[in-house]
Every structure is written in C-alpha cells, then in structure tokens.
Amino acid sequence: MSSILNETCIVGIGETAYRRGEDRPKTDFDLQLEASLAAIAEAGLKPGDIDGIVCPIVGGKADDFAANLGLKDLRYAVTSHTGGAACVAALASAAMAVAAGVARHVLVPAGWRGYSGPRARGLASNSSDLGIGSVVRDFYAPHGAVSAVHQYALIASRYLSRYKVPVEALGMVAVEFRRNAQLNPLALMRGKELTLDEYLASTMISTPFRRFDCSLETDGAAALIVASASKARDMPQPPVYIMAVEEARPYPIDEFANRQNMVEIGLTQAAPRAFARAGVTPGDVDFLQVYDSFTINVLRQIEAAGFCQPGEAGQFVLDGNIGLRGSLPVNTNGGMLAEAHIMGMNNVLEAVRQLRGAAKDRQVQNAELGVVTGLGGGWATSGIAILRR
Amino acid sequence: MSEQLSGTLATISPPLPLLEGLTAEFYAFCKAGELRFQKCSDCAAWRHVPRLRCGGCNSTSWRWERSSGQGVIYSLTTVYRALHPGLDPKTPFICAVVEMSEGVRVVSEILVEPGQVPEIGTRVAVVFDAVTQEVTLPKFRMTGRQ
User: In chain A, where are the structural domains located?
Assistant: First the structure.
C-alpha cells in the first residue's frame, strides 16, 4: 500500500475568501462549489474532468456536485466518517481510487457557513457527522457538557492537572498562531496581534478555556484535487506527493469519559503506522499542520504524532519550538485559531503551499516533508497525512 | 428542547435526554432515587454509558446494579458560557467527570455550597435533582471525608 500511496499527488487547491458574514446569503454547498471550481482551474482542469469525489461532512452530496459541475461520468463518490478529521482521512480514499484506476481526478471539497449558519460553538463532537450524537444528547448535554468547548475543557482540565502544564502553554499556542496569521493575507486575524497578557485577560468560556483557546467561526470553503503522479508531472502546479495517510480511533469512540486514558486520541495509533508506511520519522519532518479546534488539541497532537513525549508538548511550546523559525513550525497559516475554520482543509492547503515553495513570507526554508492532521468525531478520531514535494 | 409557557413567562427547558431504550431505564432508576449501572454477568465489569454488549468480554448478559453513589472528581470545568438558553441562567456552574468507586465515570454537575472549592481528587456523593416532571438527573455533592 505504501508504494501505491506514493504514486498519487495533490495537483490543485482552491479556496473562497474566508469571512465572518456575507454580502448575500449562500449555502454551505455554494461555498464548496466555488472552492471546487477554483481548485479545478488551478489544476489546469475543466470541471468535466472530475470523475471522483470524497464528499464533505456537511453541505453538498455527490449528486449536488455532479449536477452543478456538469459531470457526465462520476465514477467514485464516497464520504469520510471522521468528523473534523475528514479533510485528511479523505486523502486516503482519493489516493486509493486514483491508484486503483477507478478515477483519474478526485475532488475533495470542504467548507461551510460556520459564522453565518449554525456555529461551531453549538456543535457537539459525539457524532462523526455534524450534529448532536446520542451520547451527548443523553449523558453529556443534560449535565452541562453541551458543546465541544465544554467537552474538550473536561479533557484539557485533566491533561493540565495530570502533566502539571501551566495554562500559559495553551496561551502560547494561540499567540504563536496569531503571529503567523500576520503574514497571511487570507487570515481573518491578520492585523490583530495577540499577546499572552491579552490571552489571559480574555473571556473565560469554560475553564480552562478562554475565548482565544477556541477556533474561529468562519464562512468559507477550500478544496483540493488528487491525481496520479504521472498525470501530475504534466499539470501546471508542482506536485505534492501523498506518502501515507492513516486514521484511527480509541475505544470507545462515542464517549470519552470512560476511556482508560481520557486524554488519548487516535493519532497515537495512526501516527506510527503513517511514519512506518512513509519510511520517515518525526525527526525528518519540516513542518506540522495540526487540527487546532482548541489549543489543547495542538498539545495532544504534537505528542501523539511522536514529536514529544506525553505531557511534554507544553514545555516544547513555551521553549519557542513551534514558531516559524523554530525547530518544528506548526500551523504556519495561523491554523483554525487565526486563519479560518474550514474544518481543517485550510491547514491541508497550507501544507501544499509550503511543499510547493509558495508560502511567501511564511515559507519554511527547504520544506520537503510535511505532516498534516485532522481530529474530529468522538473528540479523538484522528487522521494523519505525510506529504512531500 | 421544549418551551413551556407559565403565565406570561416563557421558560426554556435545559437539554434533556431522550428517554428510550437503555437510556430510559437508567433515568427511571434516577427518578426512583437510585444510581444504577450495568454490570456484566460474565466478567463482572461495570459499564457506563449503557450498552447492550460488554466491551471487555463481548457478553450480552448483564444486570442493573446499584452503585455505592460514592466517587472522586476525575476532571472538572466551571462553565461560564453554557451555549444553551436552558442552561444560561445557571452559569457559572461546575460540570465534572466523576469516577465512581465501581470504576465507571459519569459526566455530571457538582453542586457546591458557599466556600467549597471542588478539585480533581475531591470525594463526592450522588444526589438526585428532578429537573422536570419526567427527568431526574444524578448530581454530586462534596462529602465530608476529603
């Protein structure tokens, strides 16, 4: 399987403007279609060239895309049941379809009216699809753990206590990503710097989470196209090779309180598999794009991916390692905390830009190998992709 | 979410469980003032949330067993923004993961007297709160022994 995955590439990316509020009402699908058309054009393709799709977790279904892109021969249409991890986990489906010869150009769109529509803050992470799951409805929400922020706050509280991590470590994640966003013309937080003092003074939502521990709520969409490496060499953009994609979940996935290790995430299982398939180690990685729905999840994923031992990511951050010129640049676009919340697809696009050498002021020097993660359903379903130029 | 009109006042209920299947059985015990969890008949493991199969030994034989009601706070968060109109009036309140003496963990509210400061490791005991006519929730108070 590893050789198959190394023969597929991301050949096009596209996005809408990332906004809070809109000039005229659009649907989630409208935004996704706009981003899809941008990615198709960037890849030098016509809409009719799309013959496979991994559908997003909200918005357009396969028939919506097929009808509106004018597809006469859609041969492959699936979706990923990984919630917020879908943008990364979907790369496996896309790559397998291309490598198996089932489809030649697979579209992977994502996006939503996350500001103008139902807001991220109102969502509960029990279900792999968007929406409240039965466990949250019956055993969490009635007791006050209504939304993702409360549920992750319970996980964060345990983590900080168990490993004696100061809350300033969470704050520095927010500060570093906000700093990166100043160099990113797409970022909603460009022009809005954040100091640690401002972070500490910000509104408490649910301890330990303050306002700036939480990702943005954004209207926007982003999409990418996967094709074979041989096709990619004839296409306009520098190809980004998919070396490995893995997904994993701890048990039980539908509620977190009764996991033996309540702070564990699927990445602990998925990352070693991905690195083994790719034949590389965390030490080889030039940058990391992590699913930053909340600051705590950045620490959890840095550890679970193998860059730090459990409990040590806080000090890693405080020591300045995750900045643009640090030993492991993380979320060079500002992530979902400071660029936009496009369900992690914006972080995948930034990984592609870095590997193409197209990240401008944010460019990590000699970026050859990147890792991007997704984190979603059940507060712990993880996806990880290892990409190279 | 249901809306009840009481005179000229509209009150929005807090989020409520859907009383079907095993969920209904769990909360029926709560309404009767009992905290019960499933116990596997084959491997004797307690479990929560209610499930038809044992995650350890795969058995589908089980019984509802009464809990001691005693537990320890495993994690907690003070909720300032409830993000639900039925809970907004209560903020700030404490939501916790309580690890019961049986080993299962329950997400529940900690009811606090003035001057009490619950923390991870604080011992608690279950009480019952009839939040609606149909639904009684288990909640926890700090016990004297700390």
Answer: 2-117+216-388
